[in-house]
Amino acid sequence: MLSQSDDEEFGVERLRIILNEAAGDLRSIGIDCAALVDTTSQVPAAAVNLLYDCYYDFIINALRCESPTIMLFLTNVADSGIELRALLECESEGTAFWQEWRTKLAEELDCRDVAYSLEAADGSAKLVIDIEAKGVA
Q: Which 3 state secondary structure label does DSSP give 117?
């Protein structure tokens, strides 16, 4: 849990620190990882918790793969939105692995009532989540 209060907001620098520290930790255990935060918006804590949960889900599944790479992009879209794009690529684990993960993650996201797209196929998973921003940092 990143925040005790859903009313709290995360600024750009705080998001960069959180995501880049996680990326650095992953690189130290052999997972190729990069995170880019390119937004000027404040992000509500509830949205950051959702984003981090998805990032963590990608990390857990990367640990099950051979030669994984995780890329995470957080950028502004339209006038009042932020988009998370996450990608996991690795040596193929077989179609069943990817479909099982896709189904489970989709069920979790459906419960949270967020706008997303999710693709998972042999060797990669791609997730895009649209969230509403609050103000400008």
A: strand
